[in-house]
Write a structure and sequence with these properties.
about 450 residues; alpha+beta; Elongation Factor Tu (Ef-tu), domain 3; OB fold (Dihydrolipoamide Acetyltransferase, E2P); 4 domains; six-stranded antiparallel beta barrel; four-stranded antiparallel sheet; 6 helices; 24 strands
């Protein structure tokens, strides 16, 4: 071991080059970590902020239109909604509290079936009161119509005969008194007294004769007619009260299906609508779902193609493989100025249980004329789509959440539709009204119907 002091001092020096190497390695690690964090942050920003939101689009299924069973060609396609021909809101004829409900939404009911019962204690009391009043008046009428009883006639006759006998006795006394007064035997006062008794008895006899005659012939016709009128009035009141009592049972006016139940047990119903939180104006709504229609708004430009009785083929978005026969049964007498449309209703001639009110429906209206041999529709049928779906000679299809552009050849057949000659074969999901900035491959979502 060397004892050289210089060598010992050399061994104590700090190696600065090694320190610089260690610091460089540490900074390299921090730069790598920072780069990774920036990359992750940029990716998250792209996902949550920079990525464009998927546009909502309306989608329809492309259909190949074939001729009708009669060989008629399709002249117009229109979209609308299934509606009941007659929707009835069943209301109460009187106000009262709901005591019982016998139906739920979707139940099928028959005409006359009890749907709701109201409290009826007050109406039952009125019926009992009217029955008692009628019975009393009927008994009074029967008494008058039967006339006087034989016992009453005999009693009146006996009283008359007794009065006549007393009158005869008074006549004899008066005669004797007159003779005695003329002879000066009795005073003039006695004569006056007997004369007064005779006159009074004469009046009593006349009164009893009239009473006897009334008892013998019975009541007057006017009395009987008056009581008979009172009986009719009481009978009418009873019938009215019975009608009110029967009205506490709210029945189905037609056979149909319950679309909505508007009340609960304990709620108060009235004859006029008050509001959602107050008394209810109707208890249920129902419709006959065997009598349904499609309601459509037809553009005024296409309205000339239709008339009352025009046939059509009805399809729904829910059941695209089912077709129903239809016929125009109602055309609105006035147009809608804002929408430039005319409302048309198509009666569905062969409905089934699959159809529901407010479903989306499409109607292919058929021509009344059969096509001539030189103007036959191609065997594959025609494809008509809304003209608004075409952008610069191409359409967009909805495929797995993306808008896929496709070139088509089309010609206009009306202000709102076009016929496709190439580019579509049927069965595709077509974006009906694509946004102006929609690009091929853009993310899209189907708009809720």
């Amino acid at each position: 071991m060397s004892d050289n002091p210089q060598s010992k001092l050399s061994s104590l020096k700090i190696d600065r080059s090694q320190r610089r190497r260690d610091q460089g390695s540490t900074w390299s690690k921090w730069w790598i970590i920072l780069g990774i964090l920036l990359f992750i942050g940029f990716g998250a920003w792209r996902i949550f902020f920079a990525a464009p939101a998927a546009a909502e689009v309306s989608v329809m299924r492309v259909r190949v239109e074939t001729s009708g069973a009669s060989g008629s060609a399709v002249v117009l396609n229109a979209a609308g909604y299934v509606v009941p021909a007659h929707k009835i809101e069943v209301a109460s004829k009187l106000s009262g509290r709901v005591e019982w409900i016998g139906v739920e939404k979707g139940d099928r009911v028959k005409q006359g079936q009890v749907l709701v019962r109201l409290e009826d204690d007050e109406f039952q009391a009125r019926v009992r009161q009217s029955k008692g009043n009628l019975a009393a008046l009927q008994a009074r009428l029967a008494e008058l119509e039967a006339g006087s009883r034989p016992e009453e006639v005999q009693r009146a006759q006996a009283q008359l005969e007794e009065a006549r006998a007393d009158l005869e006795e008074q006549r004899l006394d008066l005669g004797r008194t007159k003779e005695l007064a003329a002879a000066g035997v009795v005073a003039a006062q006695d004569l006056d007294r007997n004369q007064a008794r005779y006159d009074a008895q004469s009046s009593r006899v006349a009164s009893l004769e009239r009473a006897f005659e009334l008892v013998r012939i019975g009541p007057r016709a006017e009395q009987i007619d008056a009581v008979r009128g009172q009986v009719q009035q009481a009978l009418g009141q009873l019938e009215y009260d019975q009608t009110m009592l029967a009205s506490t049972l709210i029945r189905a006016p037609v056979t149909g299906t319950i679309l909505e139940r508007n009340v609960e047990i304990g709620e108060f119903v009235t004859t006029s609508f008050v509001g959602e939180r107050g008394a209810k104006g109707y208890v249920v709504s129902l419709a006959d779902l065997d009598d349904i229609q499609v309601e459509l708004d037809i553009s005024q430009d296409d309205f000339s193609k239709l008339r009352m009785g025009t046939k059509g083929v009805v399809t729904t978005d829910a059941f695209r493989d089912r077709e129903y026969e239809g016929e125009i049964v109602e055309i609105s007498p006035e147009a809608d100025r804002q929408k430039a449309t005319v409302q048309v209703k198509v009666q569905i001639l062969n409905p089934d249980e699959l159809l529901r009110p407010e479903m989306n429906a499409n109607v292919a209206f058929l021509s009344d004329e059969k096509p001539s041999p030189g103007n036959q529709q191609p065997a594959g049928g025609a494809i008509r789509i809304p003209a608004s779906a075409i952008r610069n000679g191409q359409v967009f299809l909805f495929v797995d959440g993306q808008a896929i552009a496709r070139q088509v050849e089309a010609r206009r057949t009306g202000s709102s539709e076009a016929e496709i000659s190439s580019g579509l074969t049927g069965g595709e999901d077509l974006i009906v009204d694509p946004p102006e900035d929609l690009a091929d491959g853009a993310a899209v979502v189907r708009k809720a119907p």
